[in-house]
Amino acid sequence: MADVKKLYLSESDKKIAGVCGGIAEYFGIDPTLVRIGWIIISLLGGAGLLAYIIAWIIIPAKDIDRY
Fold it and tell me: 10 burial class (0-12, 13-18, 19+ CB within 10 angstroms)?
């Protein structure tokens, strides 16, 4: 069976909520690049902050004790 990747908030690479760290883990890239991109989007259009809050709400935390 193929490995299925899932997007979770990062527990190990978290600055505020773990959104950027989780996205970086999912895509296998450096979290600093994701954070810089998010800051640029926030400064240019202002939608970055709203998108971060929405992502924080909808991306689940990895709950390893649940199963």
Answer: buried
Q: Rg for the chain (alpha carbons), in Å?
A: 13
Q: Is 0.85 topped by the overall pTM?
A: no
Q: Which residues contact 21 (CB under 8 A, 6 or more apart)?
A: 9, 10, 12, 13, 14, 15, 31, 34
Q: How far is CA 49 from the centre of its chain?
A: 13
pLDDT of residue 67: 47
Q: Residue 39: left (phi > 0), alpha (psi -120 to 50), or beta?
A: alpha
